[in-house]
Amino acid sequence: MSKTMKITIMCYARFRDVFGEESTIDVSDGATILDAVTALAIKGGDDAELVLSPDGTIRNYVMIVHQGSRVIPADAGTITLTDGESLTLFPPVSGG
Fold first, then answer.
1. Residue 94, pLDDT score
2. Which is nearest to 58 in space by CA: 27, 22, 32?
3. What's the number of domains the chain is made of?
4. Could you tell me if 9 and 21 are in contact, meaning their C-beta atoms sit under 8 angstroms apart?
5. Cα 13 to Cα 76: distance, rounded to the nearest angstrom
6. Which domain holds residue 78?
7. Is there a domain that residue 95 lies in?
8. Taking the model in full, what pTM does it have?
9. What H or E segment, with its residue span, contains residue 88?
């Protein structure tokens, strides 16, 4: 039986409107950032496409912050999380 971890994901702007300001996601031990974001996206139902591409990768415009550093979406599947860690997700910046 695999152990589960709790990961907190903070969302801002449009992502907060869809996924909530703060979500605690249960993922299996050894999960990556991609796994945690995918679990969050699934909770968003039809709005999962805001953060995930049809091929299951995180969209390039999503800004991810993990342990104070920005993570490129393409690297999200290579960074393993530990229980109790948190991520922050920002949508693309817009305005004028």
1. 65
2. 32
3. 1
4. no
5. 21
6. 4-90
7. no
8. 0.92
9. strand 86-90
Residue 90 CA, chain-centre distance (Å), reads 10
CB-based contact 71:64 (threshold 8 Å):
yes
Q: Which pair of tokens denotes residue 65?
A: 């912050």
DSSP 8-state class, residue 48: G
Q: Tell me, what's the pLDDT at 92?
A: 85
Structure tokens, 69: 């550093």
C-alpha–C-alpha distance, residues 65 and 89, integer Å: 7
Per-residue pLDDT of the chain (96 residues; tens, 9 = 90+): 569 999 999 999 999 999 999 999 999 999 999 999 999 999 888 899 999 999 999 999 999 999 999 999 999 999 999 999 999 999 987 655
17 in any annotated domain: yes
Query: What's the token pair of residue 38?
Result: 């995918």
Does the residue 96 lie in any domain? no
